[in-house]
Amino acid sequence: MVTSNHRLSQTGGGQRIRELRQSAELSLIDLAAKLDVEFGKQIDAGHINKIETGRIKLPLAETLDTILMGLQASYRDRRDVLGAFGYSLPLELPTEHEIEEGIRLATFSLNNATYPICLIDYGQRLWSWNRFVPRLIGLHPDDSLTKQYYGITTPDLTFNQQLPTHILVANPNEYLPVMLQYIKTALHPYRAQTWYKELISSWFTLPGFRELWNMLPNDGMREVVSIQINVPQHGVLHFRMSTSDVLLDPRFQILHFTPFGARTLRACAIWAEEEGID
C-alpha cells in the first residue's frame, strides 16, 4: 500500500467506478453477474454500491481490480481509482486498444511540431510519428515502407542489421552507450515484470547489444543524447534527443529529435516548406 497523490479522493474513487459502470450501461446487479460469469469472482451488488458511495472506506485492491476489469477500465482509470484508495498499479505495456488511445492523445503534439518527433511506449516501441521522421531515413512520409517500423523498438532501429536504419547513425560509439543508459535506467524499476524480461531477451539477440547493455550501470545519469544521422540527400544531420510524457497516460512518451546546427536547421526548414508549414 502506498500514499497516493492523485487528485481523486477515496470517495472520488468510488464515484469514478460509478461513472464507469453507468457509461457501460450496467446496473449494480448486471456488474455483479458479469464478474461472476467472466472472472469467477463473487462480489455482490450491495458491496459494489458501498464502494461507490464511500461507505466502504478501504476496499481490497483485488476487489477494486476485479471491478475495474469487469468495467474494461483504461489503464489511466485503473491507476487513478486504485491510487485514490492508496494502492499503486504496476506499470504494464499498453494493449492494442490503449495504443490507439495513446496515438490519439499524441496527435496534436505530432502534427504541430516543426522537427522530427515520434510516439513510443515504455517498451521503447514506436507507434506513431510526424511527417518529418520518415525523411530521416530517406523515405517520403507517404511511402508504404514506413509501415514496417510500426511497433519496432528503438534498440532495433540501431542494432538490428536487418533494418536499414542501423547504418545511418554516424556517431554510434558516442550515441549508443548514452541511449542504452537512458533506457536501462528508465526500465530498471520494472525488471521483475514479465514484459521487461521478454523485452530484454529479444534485445539480447541483437548483435552487440548484450555486451554493451551488461557493461552499463543500472542507475546511471540521464544525459542528453546527441545523435548524428546520415540522412539521404542531406548528409550528416545533428539532433539532440529527449523525451516528454503523454500526460494522460505515463506509459507513452514523445521522443524529440531537436535540430542542432545550421545544416540541420536548414534541412528541417526545407521539410517544413514541403509540408506547407510556415
User: Distance between the terminal alpha carbons, to the nearest Å?
Assistant: 51 Å
Percent in helix:
40-55%
Gross morphology is elongated
Provide a count of the helices. 11
Main sheet: strand order: 2-1-5-4-3
The succession of helices and strands, N to C, reads HHHHHHEEHHHHEEEH
Helix/strand-derived category reads: alpha+beta
Description:
This protein is an alpha+beta fold and 278 residues long. 44% of the residues lie in helices and 13% in strands. It has a 5-stranded antiparallel β-sheet. A hairpin with a 4-residue loop joins strand 1 and strand 2 (126-129). Helix 1 packs across helix 3 (45-53), helix 1 (10-23) packs antiparallel against helix 5 (75-84) and helix 4 packs antiparallel against helix 5. The protein starts with 9 loop residues before the first helix and ends with a helix. Mean pLDDT is 91; it is low at 1-7.
Topology:
Layout: H1 10-23, H2 28-39, H3 45-53, H4 61-70, H5 75-84, H6 96-111, E1 117-121, E2 126-129, H7 154-159, H8 172-187, H9 194-203, H10 209-215, E3 225-231, E4 235-245, E5 252-259, H11 262-274
Antiparallel strand pairs: 1-2, 1-5, 3-4, 4-5
Helix pairs in contact: 1-3, 1-5, 2-3, 4-5
Summarize the structure.
The protein has 278 residues and is an alpha+beta fold.
Q: Could you name the key traits of this structure?
A:
13% strand; single chain; 278 residues; elongated; 44% helix; 5-stranded antiparallel β-sheet; alpha+beta
